[in-house]
Amino acid sequence: MLDNPMWLRDNCPCPDCRDPHSGQKFFQITDLPDDLAIGTLAERADQIEVTWFPDGHRSVYPRAWLTAPAAVDHRSEAGKRLWSAADLTQAPEALPEADWHTYLSMPAERLRVLEAVQRLGFALLRGVPVEEGQVLEVAESFGYVRETNYGRLFDVRVEPAPGNLAFTSRAIAPHTDNPYRDPVPTIQLLHCLTNAAEGGDSGLVDGFHAAALLRAEDPGAFAVLARTPVPFVYRDAQTELSAFRPLIDVDPLGHVREVRFNNRSFGTLRSPGGFYDAYRAFAKVLARPELMLTFRLGPGDCLIFDNTRLLHARTAFEQSGARHLQGAYADLDGLASTLAVLRRTIALDELEALFTGPGTGDYLGEPVTMAEHMLQAAALAEAAGASAHLVASALLHDLGHLDGGAELMAGVDNRHSHTGADLLGRWFGPEVTEPVRLHVAAKRYLCAVEPDYRARLSEASEFTLQVQGGPMSAQEAAGFAALPGAADAVAVRRFDDAAKVAGAATPAFAHFRPLLARLLRG
Amino acid sequence: MLDNPMWLRDNCPCPDCRDPHSGQKFFQITDLPDDLAIGTLAERADQIEVTWFPDGHRSVYPRAWLTAPAAVDHRSEAGKRLWSAADLTQAPEALPEADWHTYLSMPAERLRVLEAVQRLGFALLRGVPVEEGQVLEVAESFGYVRETNYGRLFDVRVEPAPGNLAFTSRAIAPHTDNPYRDPVPTIQLLHCLTNAAEGGDSGLVDGFHAAALLRAEDPGAFAVLARTPVPFVYRDAQTELSAFRPLIDVDPLGHVREVRFNNRSFGTLRSPGGFYDAYRAFAKVLARPELMLTFRLGPGDCLIFDNTRLLHARTAFEQSGARHLQGAYADLDGLASTLAVLRRTIALDELEALFTGPGTGDYLGEPVTMAEHMLQAAALAEAAGASAHLVASALLHDLGHLDGGAELMAGVDNRHSHTGADLLGRWFGPEVTEPVRLHVAAKRYLCAVEPDYRARLSEASEFTLQVQGGPMSAQEAAGFAALPGAADAVAVRRFDDAAKVAGAATPAFAHFRPLLARLLRG
Fold first, then answer.
1. Is the CB of B243 less than 8 angstroms away from the CB of A75?
2. What is the pLDDT averaged over residues B114-143?
3. B41 and B98 housed in the same domain
4. Does the pLDDT at position B405 exceed 80?
5. CA distance B256 to chain A (A)
6. For chain B, which has fewer Cβ within 10 Å, the N-terminal or C-terminal residue?
């Protein structure tokens, strides 16, 4: 990446380049000088520091950031689990169902449901109150309702002069909704109020899976569909919509990212060429029985599904029978945001529970609890103006102690720094986890290289030093100093050593939640 | 098109294939037999009739439909007028401005404003009440509000701890909004409540024009931007959004259809390759001063613009000065629908005004008014079960008379059938206009080929026959019969001839509006 100075400079994390609060960049890409180049480059174990020519700006990049992988695009097939019906029916726990009240009250359950919509394309909530308008409550539990000409919600039942075949008792073959809309609503919800009619069962087909099958079996047909925008049209007395989009929309990397399929509103494609052969080939893949998951919606069931991916269908039903669903549209980006924030909340709740539960135990041999010790370390880091990841490392450095402190004091090295770093790796990047991992080694290192350091250790710390291997040899110390994260680990170690003051006032864990939230991995 | 049987059959207009009410298709593309072929083909002057192998289904296609051109995709550059600032400032009438109350009360003014948003990418409403929340009234005048994490509307003013640089007094360089959202809001509205601060002027840049310039000047850079999805990110305490989309999104035909440009929320692109050179090349085109239209929003001004195309900007302003805008998002598809329905309404209003105004005049020499005559003809056509386009032709066949009847009775052929057909061509396709054009010729034809036809003509009609050229010769009649639309013209002629009954009850014009609305060109 050092051979791409514009890229590197555009990503400068310093507070002159980015708003520390919002993370937004202050400068435009044209603000960078044409002759921008790396002036001097200092490579350190855990970071690189660049001084820029010609403006002398200074940027510091953590090595862990430089080598981080690209994020996954959750809208394309690259971020999905594709399925056939059997994948979900042969392992009943694979069916993404949940009870509405549990979903509302338990963040972990809400996470599971929303992850299913993102990864599998749908989830089914049971026990949603059988009341009109409730579908909007479901939509608003994860995002924003997309109002359309059908209203904020729409009723799916037999109508006397339907503008849309959905409002008849006819069978509806697998399709995506509103292909004539651009942007198309990316999520659909269907809430069942009554389903007493003979027939009217539901089906779902994974359109991304069907597209992947077509690409494997008939790549020419796939290519035709991906490169042909087709007109979809809808017209009634108050509305006239049209959109020109391909049946299979691929991103510039060739990944499937949207499927539209609806012969009902397919307009007249002029100059069709070989399109119809390809269209029918795709339609035949979509119609394979093994692709369709079938089930019956009962009163109180609410289906949430990705309308850019899943095709939905229903069998015909007896016109005299009562069948009434309410539907609404919403969007995937709002759902993805709710999911990301929920992951943060769950992670921070788990961490906070460690502070308020096991963390209230004695920090063995010291006059503070473990939680007090870690909060003191974080407060010291914050007061010293340490960067956010070091405040976080200081706050979380002894997490591995929380269920192994006694062992250590009994003379067994529980390797708590590694336990803690591994635990934290679920939520944080190496800029947070590695100083935690190395904070014990940093003690052994400082004993070796800083003459009066060892004498200042607390009694308990002097005891555990022996269990942990004693001071490093000169060779070990040189090896440690060269490690990525060594400097950060030493900094954390110094906050750690000073954080053992009985009765010192510190902020509560909640004070650090926003800082931790910003560091949590997306 | 006859060599593409699947295409032809998929477009069968018969009521077994399509719901006559909604126009939606009843069948799936897989319902058509694999060995589908044209069994027999009857080519007539104005339509072709196909009997299908193997199922014997019969389809009739108007020739006018067969050769109709493809509709234009109004979302891509193909449906836009690209501009530089001078294109709009050198001809002041080119600036799409309107008064809010005129816009609300006059359909033609509303049409002009919404067409400007669709074609130029923006319009400016003046005189919108300076009241909070009014921006939602503007959005709801043409479409549906897209609610986001910023709410149904958002306030643009200086905030103490802004999550977004928009909420500071900083200059904001040209950008599109919410590139981290997918689907991105396609319309933005900004309603000015106060702008007393020094600075805070507005700018707009046509991103499609800039992309077209880049394509012409640096096709390699254009290609890199079109094929590279880039991450855009936004994160605050309640929200975490990301989208991977190219800066220039082209449709499968290579037409530009969306531009995203916002360095503030541009995330870290991994493996950038040559992206940054292309990015800066595009940024430099966008920054050309001649591209930016600058103006100042005053209280009561509301800007409506296409957020997939136009970049908007503002200069820095004095932090102590009062500046307060309210913004909202909406979508282009709703606007396009409103525009299409408005075109229908305006067309039908104009037609209805002809019936209730000049149409109330005498139908010269007959015991009915011109409006009564035409309504009788339409009612007869409807009672005979004629297809919709023939009912419309019958209803509108004498429109060309409405300001030229006296001339004809004075012995001058005003060619009213041509005048009427040309007038109708603004709104209807040839299936409606051509029978109107030929209905006088049809009289001359019938006099030639149907022995007792002439004797049944009314006195006035016999008189005008002479002015119009008298009965056709045998050669003329053969030529007429071969014309597209001849059969339809003869049918309309017979309704015309019978529609001269004093005092006959007919439906009002309003009865025919839904039928006419369905025939209006999209």
1. yes
2. 98
3. no
4. no
5. 13
6. C
Residues B271 and B180 in one domain: yes
User: What number is the ipTM of this complex?
Assistant: 0.89
**Nearest CB to B241 within list A69, A147, A337:** A337
Collapsed DSSP state (helix, strand, coil) of residue B320: coil
Of A165, A238, A341, nearest to B239 by CB-CB distance is: A341
For A327, the token pair is 């539907």
Could you tell me which of B294, B269, B156, B310 has the C-alpha nearest to residue A29? B269
Task: Residue A270: name the closest of B70, B136, B81, B214 by CA.
Answer: B70
Q: What is the CA radius of gyration of chain B?
A: 29
pLDDT computed for residue B522 by the predictor: 64
Residues B134 and B213 in one domain: yes
B33 in contact with A, Cβ within 8 Å? no
Tell me, yes or no, whether A440 lies in a domain.
yes
pLDDT (tens digit, 9 = 90+) per residue, B129-142? 999 999 999 999 99
Give the span between the Cα atoms of B497 and B222, in whole angstroms.
63
Contact B191, B138 (CB under 8 A): yes
Return phi, psi of residue B518, to 5°. Answer: -70, -30
Q: Does B344 touch chain A (CB under 8 A)?
A: yes
* Most B CBs within 10 Å, among A253, A332, A337, A511, to test the B interface: A337
Distance CA B2, CA B66 (A): 10
**Are residue A197 and residue A272 in the same domain, yes or no?**
yes
B226/A252 touch (CB, cutoff 8 Å), yes or no: yes
Closest CA to B79 of B328, B306, B311: B306
Residues of A in contact with B73 (CB under 8 A): 229, 244
SS3 B510: helix
pLDDT 10s digits, B452-482: 999 999 888 888 898 889 999 999 999 999 8
Q: CB contact, 8 Å: A7 with chain B?
A: yes
Same-domain status, A413 and A311:
no
A343 domain-assigned: no
Domain assignment of residue A154, given as a range: 87-338
* b/e code B168-194 from CB counts within 10 Å (16+ = b): bbbebbbbbbbbbbbbbbbbbbbbbbe
pLDDT tens across B77-86, in order?
999 999 999 9
User: Vertex A18, ends A14 and A19: CA angle to 5°?
Assistant: 115
A324 and A423 inside one domain:
no
What band does B422 get if pLDDT is binned at 50, 70 and 90? confident
Residue type, A290: E
Q: What is the pLDDT of residue B409?
A: 63
Do A461 and A427 have their domain in common?
yes
* Cross-strand pairs, A233: A242
Structural domain includes residue A344: no
**pLDDT tens across B272-292, in order?**
999 999 999 999 999 999 999
Work out whether strand A47-53 and strand A58-62 pair parallel, antiparallel, or are unpaired: antiparallel
Closest by alpha carbon to B17, among B31, B3, B5, B4?
B31
A430 and A463 part of one domain: yes
